[in-house]
Write a structure and sequence with these properties.
Blueprint: E1 2-3, E2 11-14, E3 18-23, E4 28-37, E5 40-43, E6 48-59, E7 63-66, E8 69-71, E9 74-75, E10 78-79, E11 90-95, E12 99-101, E13 104-112, E14 116-118, E15 120-123, E16 126-130, E17 133-136, E18 139-140, E19 144-147, E20 150-153
Parallel strand pairs: 1-5, 4-6, 5-7, 6-8, 6-11, 7-13, 8-14, 11-15, 13-16, 14-17, 15-18, 16-19, 17-20
Antiparallel strand pairs: 2-3, 3-4, 9-10, 12-13
Length: 183
Amino acid sequence: NVVHIDTMASFTCRTALGQLDWDLATRTLTVDGTIFIDGSIDLSSGTVMRYDGLGAIYLSGTFLMHQTQLCGAVWAGACDTSGWNSAQDVLLIAAKGPQDFSQCTQCSALLEQGATFQGALYGEFNMGFQNNSSVQGPMVAKEELIQNSFTFNYIPNIVNVPFGTPGNSITTYSVISPTNYGG
């Protein structure tokens, strides 16, 4: 399963642990809490997307960005590297699955052809950055494979990290009553 959020109609998805909303008209993704997608995300619409909130998206598959920008702050039609409020808006993408992309073997994530991401990236396997791609935020992977120009922007202070971020200790939790069961 491959999800193309950037070309989908607007939607709202809320659970007890998280929220994921997409507004196609404003090209805004709202994230809150922890979201799991059993599959991959492919953002290849060639547009600028903004996200609001503090959240983590876990993928059983891979994360691909092609000519698309996903930003915590946008100014003048691009990610605003000096205006990102990392105390308020942080998106973690954690991709488990390996895939062989062009020039990127065993990759959990690939940013190519001018793709830009503001947030945190975690890959179980390798990450590839190709052809004028850029990232602003922490990245963790087995290897980071860089080809044909890559820009790594400074990492601002990230005070709050999304619940469930790898390496983040869970200090409080609450158990809710089960719902939607039969028998």
